[in-house]
Design a protein that fits this description.
Length: 186
């Protein structure tokens, strides 16, 4: 247990200095705990996943404020709980614009391969695309923007209208899930 705690503290310190592998380690280490905690409150998978992403984004933004006297997991769950409460408050006080929300919710994607998809298939990347398409749509989009459209984080922030920390966490999560899909197919 002491060794595990030392690894976590070491990863936190490295992440504070911008080490991306440490961010990935922390995300992988605590994703399930945070996700399960939020899912138990929301009972809705998509909402739980969104709040989990926002939790890690907030935590990674505020990593300098983490006090090593406390457990990192407890700190993350506190952030998750606060975000959940904030969301409840927002839902209770938000004026609903049905037309705007319906256009987003009922957006139907064309499953016919685009010319870009056909070109990729011709270049023997059909298998990779099949794996990517197994991801949830928001993960597909973030992988597409980063690796196929070669957008920078800054460009993705503008395109998706989300904070850079959310973009980075979603991309980390998308890459992890894609790796799991690829490994499961072997």
């Amino acid at each position: 247990m002491v060794k595990k705690t030392e690894n976590i503290i070491d990863s936190i310190n490295k992440a504070k200095n911008g080490d991306e592998t440490s961010y990935t380690f922390l995300l992988n280490m605590f994703w399930k705990d945070v996700y399960r905690f939020i899912l138990s409150k929301t009972n809705e998978e998509n909402e739980a996943e969104d709040l989990t992403i926002r939790t890690f984004a907030r935590a990674f933004d505020k990593l300098d404020t983490f006090n090593e006297k406390y457990e990192f997991k407890t700190w993350l769950l506190t952030i998750a709980n606060n975000l959940f409460i904030d969301q409840l408050r927002k839902v209770k006080t938000e004026t609903v614009s049905i037309d705007k929300k319906n256009t987003e919710v009922y957006k139907i994607e064309d499953e016919e391969p685009s010319p870009v998809d056909k070109l990729i298939i011709e270049q023997n990347l059909a298998q990779l695309l099949a794996f990517i398409k197994q991801l949830k749509p928001h993960y597909q989009e973030i992988i597409n923007l980063r690796f196929f459209q070669e957008m920078s984080y800054k460009e993705m922030t503008k395109e998706l209208n989300e904070p850079m920390s959310n973009i980075k966490v979603k991309l980390l999560r998308a890459k992890k899930l894609l790796a799991e899909i690829i490994n499961a197919s072997k």
